[in-house]
Fold each of these.
Amino acid sequence: MATAVIMPKQGQSVETCIITKWFKNKGESVSVGDILFSYETDKAAFDLESPAEGILLDRYFEEGNEVPVLVNVAVIGKNGEPTGSFDPQQKGHPDTTASTASKAVEDSKAEEEEISGFSDSHKTDRIRISPRAKRLAIDNNINYNSLQGSGPNSRIIASDIEKVLSGSVTGKKVIRETNPEFNEQPLSNVRQLIAKAMHSSLQNSAQVTHHMSADVRHLLEARQKIKSQIADNVNQQDITINDMVCWCVIKALEKFPEANSHFLDDRIKTFHKVHLGLAVDTPRGLMVPVVKNAGNMNLVELSKELKSVAEACRKGRINPELIRSDAASFTVSNLGSYGVEMFTPVINLPQVGILGVCTIINRPADMGNNIFGFVPYIGLSLTYDHRAIDGGPATIFLKEIKTQIEKFRY
């Protein structure tokens, strides 16, 4: 019996998702767990795995299409099995009721918003195109002059431009403008969200960054011990320097709860538990998953959770509720592996602080008895919202992180 592939509902507020890439073509064999396609919500990007084994009998949406959640995207079964009953595009199909109504409203709005297209000395014909479609075309360098619209009276609507972007419309009459001196491509949905969040953060808060360094000899000793145990096949969790720093940050937050807060314009929400966010670099862009109740975990448990949420982000399987900006109470961003010595991390609002972890550098230090040597120091860059925290308390909090790192024992 054929199996429908349904667009998942990723979070309570998600109503539609955009298919960004197909990995399987119609007619190909698939196994359970194979990645069928990637898709984006308004918060993050994900991969969808095959729920069944068989042949990909049909695909009802293509790359670039915006698909309502819980609607059939494809169907898997055996060769020759009928698939007509799964097609959400067929009239009267139960899955299309909401989307058909939505499209009717969009087409109605497009008709009301009809405008004249641009004209120049070489062209005087009137182009019937909705404002939304025109914006989309201009943003993506699409020449829509010769495009045949599918709206009322052949007007061009947004879905016509989206078909060009997805490659489902071809031909010499529809081209994307090119320039031999540079290459342009539209921003992905995730990149647009990141850009919007970062700009909003800097525009709507008073951010200040303090820099400090901490002696990490004890952390490096612990790390060497852990690596030796792993090499000796001891059942040992691979606890990293970043895991240890996060552990120390949690201890500092428990002593300075004012940094474990959200600034909400007319009030400050201070959390009794530490919900630690971790900035993760993924192929789709920056994500910040949260480890809930991180302060209740021991170091081994924290290490496992940090790795778990990071891996879920990279594979596109993270729960959308765990990457909401208000899910974490404080965030750590580690660029040390890239050799960054100092940077200014941007706060993930409404949080009031974020710690940037930098690379380890050997610096001269007084070893006592007029003896000087080189000591490994890790850079710490704390950005805080001055609306919520003053400079003095912020410095004391950063110093507490330094203290926790320097007194760390494993």
Note: Residues 338 and 359 are 7 Å apart (CA to CA).
Amino acid sequence: MKRLSDKVAIITGASAGIGWATALLLAREGAKLVLGARRECELNALAAEIEQAGGSAVALAGDVRDEGYAKGLVELAVSRHGRLDVAFNNAGMLGESGPSTELSEAGWADTLAVNLTGSFLGAKHQIGQMLLNGGGCVIFTSTFVGYSFAFPGVAAYAASKSGLIGLTQALAAEFGPKSVRVNAILPGAVDTDMYRTMNDTPEKTTFVTNLHALKRVATPQEIARTVLYLASDDSAFVTGAALLVDGGASITRS
């Protein structure tokens, strides 16, 4: 039996990487998807791929910094399927990087607006709808950066993603009594466009790879399977978790 049969799910940041892989996996497990990201052509291609495979997906392009967009994704889910069960707030950006003493206020603000505020706005409207359904689950994409690891030059990224952990815990405590579960995944290095941007030389790639106990980085598909676990009833007693999916990076010292 499919683990998400007839469940309705929103995925942001679905046009590439973890979001793309998760959309394909959740669709195979029976979820009806509403796909969000800024890149309309990529979103439409993903939706078409899911539909051709016998799944259900509709795309709506927009910017997660816009509260109207967050509301629109929920309204689309309800207008198409009558409910919302799962939300994967995955959209994010590396943002301005470099020495923190040279980081612009605008760069700082923009990174937090996408990674933290955008996720909050999404959850605000998603949870509001889930309460009408009798419950649901919300998942955020945080990171091991700023939690179990620190790298120079990415202060805004680390702060914004760390903020998601506090948001996760606050929402889990607030809405747990109403059967809404809220969790965050904290991936280690994942082979995505963002990873390749941050690690653009063989030396950097080797260094980051060796931080992990498994001595490799994750594929987006591996992270997607963790999202599936949190979205399904397999994790029915899991909420408020900051779940490391880091290949042992947090415990490796060799």
Note: The first helix runs from residue 17 to 28.
Amino acid sequence: MSESAVDYLAEPDGQAAAGVLVAHDWYGLLPHVRAACDELAAAGLVALAPDLYDGRTTTDPEQAEALMTGLDQAAARARLDEAVETLRARSGGGPVGVLGWSLGGTFALLQAATGRVDAAAVYYAALDEDDAARIHCPVLLHRAENDEFDPPEFYDRFVAALKAAGTEVAVHTWPGTEHSFANGDVALHVPDAAAKAWSITVQFLRDHLAGAAAG
């Protein structure tokens, strides 16, 4: 169901013990994002995906780049902050994790760096070493084998900085994939790798959020 005119909220049948902030990539809040929220709700987690583009979406990379360039970064961060608080309220004060792809993955990691979330699952996104040092919640990182936007060394430095800070991190690199491979609405989608990565993601979030709430 919808939290506002454009944001997407999905809740389990019973009371959720934990929540997930879901941050879309530069293409916008496409159907695969709403499907991810629905599947998280089916796994017992309340999921909220703020629409940072206010209803605008595309499957064209050039249009996506224009949408991202026009995004008010500070306003987007504020909306994500509000979403975390909404999720805490809807989960009875339980743990909240973040999930994001590319642009949304960067936002998810920035949320993790604030110390206000309990787990971060990200696809093809990383931060610099200084930001990584401020992330102390468990991190799951899915990497494309061939990433046109960031070289392997960028991810390697990020992972090394997380480990140096004592942060739990799991990394999966998916053969034969490019940036956006997990977006089911665009041409770069790789269904098999995306499905396997998603299974790992759901298990990670359940373990670190619902498991933490139960404990």
Note: The chain has one domain: 8-214.
